[in-house]
Amino acid sequence: MITAIVLIKTSVDRIPEIAESIAALEGVSEVYSVTGTYDLVAMVRVRAHEDLADVIPGKVNKVAGVLETETHIAFRTYSQHDLEAAFAIGLES
After folding, report:
1. Residue 56: which residues within 8 A CB-CB, separation 6 or more?
2. In DSSP terms, which residues pair with 70 in a beta bridge?
3. 8 vs 35: CA distance, rounded Å
4. Is the pTM of this model over 0.85?
5. Residue 18: what are its φ and ψ, rounded to 5°?
6. Do residues 3 and 45 touch, judged by C-beta distance below 8 A?
7. Domain assignments of the chain as residue spans, ordered by start
8. Is 55's pLDDT higher than 60?
9. What is the spatial distance between Cα 64 and Cα 75, in angstroms, rounded to a whole number?
10. Is 85 helix (H, G, I), strand (E, B) or coil?
């Protein structure tokens, strides 16, 4: 699974609508409204690198109100949730 973190600048008066449109796209697992330079952060998860082109420039950038994106590809995932699950294997609650 390939994970991309997409930083998105939008028309600020339409952030909720734009976020909902992006969240509805296939390949987008979640969208966060954030403070700072960017307005939204989208998590894109696809099976192959080639699929990123279909989702990010092919769909996300075409949502009305998206002004600019910056994409970061994740190398490895470090998650407290994953660590807790791994250590809990075989233990009963």
Report:
1. 4, 6, 44, 69, 71
2. 7
3. 11
4. no
5. -65, -45
6. yes
7. 2-87
8. yes
9. 30
10. helix
What is the rounded average pLDDT of the residues 45-53?
Answer: 95
Q: Report helix, strand or coil for 21.
A: helix
C-beta of residue 40 within 8 angstroms of C-beta of residue 10: yes
Q: What CATH architecture applies to the domain 2-87?
A: 2-Layer Sandwich (3.30)
Helix (H) or strand (E) holding 31: strand 28-33
Contact 56, 4 (CB under 8 A): yes
- Residues 25-44: pLDDT tens digits? 999 999 999 999 999 999 99
CA gap 46, 4 in Å, rounded: 8
| 27, 59 Cβ separation under 8 angstroms | yes
